[in-house]
């Protein structure tokens, strides 16, 4: 695992609570990161997902270091990112909770060829082979090479301002 700390000596950063307040109202897409570990499906809700590169196609997700999810994900050779759709708040809450078996009904999932679960009814998913794991501050950044994926036209589920929401186009015309 790589460690990334490059703050110059003498640089003073803002405290965590102020940082959290500043970012609280910035909406982010809600995903469920799912993977197989110990022969069982695992998953957690995240808003800390991003694309990193087109060539090669890299994606990353951050998870709090020391959590059960970070330990299991750190050991997983692959993972899936499930993009939640508007109306899937209950699913987001389930995977953000301490429920032991998050994949029990009513959650519906299928297994990819590599064993990773993808959740049915979401707006899409990516399948990633783990490329690198980097300890960054109090989080583990897991970078994956994207192998496959699907998408549909459902509206995305967003989280911002301490609530779930979705987006509406400002201009109903075709995207430019």
UniProtKB/TrEMBL annotation:
Recorded GO MF terms: oxidoreductase activity
Domain named Flavin reductase like: residues: 23-166
SUPFAM superfamilies referenced in this protein's UniProt entry, alphabetically: FMN-binding split barrel
InterPro entries registered for this protein in UniProt: Flavin_Rdtase-like_dom, NADH-dep_flavin_reductase, Split_barrel_FMN-bd
Entry's EC annotation: 1.-.-.-
Keyword terms, alphabetized: Oxidoreductase
Oxidoreductase is among the record's keywords: yes
The name this protein goes by in its record: Flavin reductase family protein
Keyword Oxidoreductase: yes
Pfam families: Flavin_Reduct
């Amino acid at each position: 695992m790589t460690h990334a700390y490059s703050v110059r000596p003498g640089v003073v950063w803002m405290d965590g609570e102020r940082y959290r307040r500043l970012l609280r109202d910035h909406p982010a897409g809600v995903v469920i990161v799912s993977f197989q570990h110990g022969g069982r499906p695992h998953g957690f809700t995240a808003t800390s997902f991003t694309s990193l590169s087109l060539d090669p196609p890299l994606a990353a997700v951050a998870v709090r270091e020391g959590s059960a999810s970070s330990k299991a994900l750190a050991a997983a050779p692959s993972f899936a990112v499930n993009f939640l759709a508007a109306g899937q708040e209950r699913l987001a809450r389930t995977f953000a909770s301490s429920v032991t078996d998050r994949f029990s009904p009513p959650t519906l999932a299928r297994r990819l060829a590599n064993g990773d679960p993808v959740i049915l009814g979401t707006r899409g998913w990516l399948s990633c082979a783990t490329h690198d794991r980097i300890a960054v501050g109090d989080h583990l950044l897991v970078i994956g090479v994207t192998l496959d994926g699907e998408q549909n036209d459902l509206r995305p589920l967003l989280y911002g301002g301490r609530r779930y929401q979705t987006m509406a186009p400002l201009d109903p015309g075709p995207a430019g």
